[in-house]
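Sample 1 of the test manifest.
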Amino acid sequence: MAGRPGSTATPDAERRVSRTENLISLVLRIGVLASLLCVMTGTVISFIHHPEYLSSSIALHHLTQPGAAFPRTLHDVFLGVRDVRGQAIVVVGLLLLIMTPVMRVAVSVLIFHHQRDRMFTLITAIVLCLLLASFVLGWISR
Amino acid sequence: MIPALTLLLKIDIRYAIGASIVSVIATSSGAAVAYVKERLTNLRVAMVLEIGTTLGALTGSYLAGRISGRWLHIIFGLMMGYSALMMFRKRRGSSEDDRAAPWADFLRLHSSYYDEALDREVAYKVVRTRVGLGLMYIAGTVSGLLGIGSGALKVPAMDLAMRLPIKVSAATSNFMIGVTAAASAGVYFMRGDIDPFVAAPVAAGVLAGATLGSRLLGRLHGRIIRIIFIAVLLYVSFQMMWRGIH
């Protein structure tokens, strides 16, 4: 930070850097917290709807085996959330977690664009495209 | 973590990998909040190298299941053992050479950080950006293939090849792991390999641990972090080869 011994950067550049860093931290923090909240809410709702998960380890075991029924497509997730199904809300939480780094990269693109750093706008935009391509790739390779 | 899930809890390996990759995002994002604020993370280096790691992650998560897992374990076990050795060698005396770094100059990657343990600002130069990018592609592939963060490959690449200080390497690696894992997780999710009731509790538990660990990094001496890291590398290397052989 400003005033630290041995610092070579100008105060103006330092302030800009620390603002960038605070913004990125904020995006990560919000993403993780929102995800945790959804995951916890969804878990509680599932246990309220299916009290047998608490008493029978067999019922719980079925949830974690191949062929287990859980929402696999965005459409399923959407329908599940509409019907307040716990599992679908947990999936939304996990999707929020997956989207957190994606949002972080998207925010970086905007920050570099705002700073008129064309090289880094391009670099972060490439990373963002690769991240979005991952969803397409997963969909194709089902 | 994957051995713990498959061996102890008898969870299907596919869902174990899916859960692991999600928990990796949780760890990285949770810890990154602290590292970025402490200015340990070199954001510019991270952004550049993420091109390599995400490309690798796409390759790895696509290839997952197409190659015999047995051989992969053996190869990666050997690779981790090798990087532990390299880390050890640097600890025993490093030579500071002033090589030219046109790419790092062009991209303005050089930076400095405030070292809490030394109580002073430490400036550093970044070298061999292209080599780093290539190594990150490999690290990303491993990450996507096995559902691990593969910080064990990223840290040595930055520490040894690119000559970033160990603390900056650790924080920057952690920062990139989130994006790398998100690329893999996207593929795994759309493929239907992420079971919410396996992934959610794992992610929540791991997040608590990561928050604790990140508070420690700034306060410890670089040398101690390096020793812990070498020990973990050797352990994982042994475990990987053991699984491959059996």
